[in-house]
Amino acid sequence: MIGGYVRLGLSSEGVALFREMQVAGVVPDEVTMVCFLSACIDLGALELGKWLEAYIERENVSKSDVLWNALIDMFAKCGDVDKALSLFRKKSQWNIVSWTSVIDGDKSHSEYKIIYKMVDDIGKEIRRAGYAASTSEVLLDIDEENKEGAVNRHREKLAIAFSLMNTPPGTPIRIVKNLRVCEDCHSATKFISKTYKREILFRDRNRFHRFIDGVCSCKDFW
C-alpha cells in the first residue's frame, strides 16, 4: 500500500502509514522498507531515510542487493553523496544498479570528476596495449568519435575505474550486471585485467566472466 501511495504521488501518506505500522508493532518487510525509501526520495526527506537506516542496523536486518541499492539511491538523491559513496564502498561486489544510484546523485561531487578522469586514463593505457573501441552496438545516428565517447561512459567501465581507485593493487574486482555485457566493455575489460594486473569477476545476464591477464573464461563466446 505504501508503494501505491508513492506511485500516486502521495508520499506523505505513505510515510504516515509506515509510522502507523510502527506504532502498531508491525515489522516492515524488505518491500515495505524499499517503498518507504522511495517516499523519502520523493519528499527529499533525508532525516527519515537516516532513521530507517538506523532501524535496519539496530534490528540487524539483512540487506539484500535491492535494499542496499535503495539506501544508496536515497542518500545520493537526497543530497548526502558522501554517505552514498560510503555505503557503496562497503559492498562486497560492485553492482551496476548500485553504481547507477551513486552516479545519478549529485554530479557536482568532486569524486565524479576524478572517476571520469580515471576512465579516460584507463582508455589511454589500454589503447597503448592494443585496445580499439568497438562501436557496432551503438545504434545512435552520431559520428564515430561520439560513438566511442558513448561506449567509454558505460557503467561497467565507471564501476571498474571506481574499483581501481578504491581497492589495493592486486585485489580482485567483482561486478554484477543484469544485462548482457556489450562487446566493447568485454574487450576493454580483457585489456584492463592485463594492463592493471587485476582479476575481474563479472556476472552479466547470461553468464559469469572471469578476466585474468587479458583472457576471459568465456573464450569470447557469450
TrEMBL record:
<dbReference type="GO" id="GO:0009451">
    <property type="term" value="P:RNA modification"/>
</dbReference>
<keyword id="KW-0677">Repeat</keyword>
<dbReference type="InterPro" id="IPR002885">
    <property type="entry name" value="PPR_rpt"/>
</dbReference>
<dbReference type="GO" id="GO:0003723">
    <property type="term" value="F:RNA binding"/>
</dbReference>
<dbReference type="Pfam" id="PF14432">
    <property type="entry name" value="DYW_deaminase"/>
</dbReference>
<feature type="repeat" description="PPR">
    <location>
        <begin position="64"/>
        <end position="98"/>
    </location>
</feature>
<dbReference type="InterPro" id="IPR032867">
    <property type="entry name" value="DYW_dom"/>
</dbReference>
<dbReference type="InterPro" id="IPR011990">
    <property type="entry name" value="TPR-like_helical_dom_sf"/>
</dbReference>
<dbReference type="InterPro" id="IPR046960">
    <property type="entry name" value="PPR_At4g14850-like_plant"/>
</dbReference>
<feature type="domain" description="DYW">
    <location>
        <begin position="130"/>
        <end position="222"/>
    </location>
</feature>
<dbReference type="Pfam" id="PF01535">
    <property type="entry name" value="PPR"/>
</dbReference>
<feature type="repeat" description="PPR">
    <location>
        <begin position="1"/>
        <end position="28"/>
    </location>
</feature>
<comment type="similarity">
    <text>Belongs to the PPR family. PCMP-H subfamily.</text>
</comment>
<dbReference type="GO" id="GO:0008270">
    <property type="term" value="F:zinc ion binding"/>
</dbReference>
<protein>
    <recommendedName>
        <fullName>DYW domain-containing protein</fullName>
    </recommendedName>
</protein>
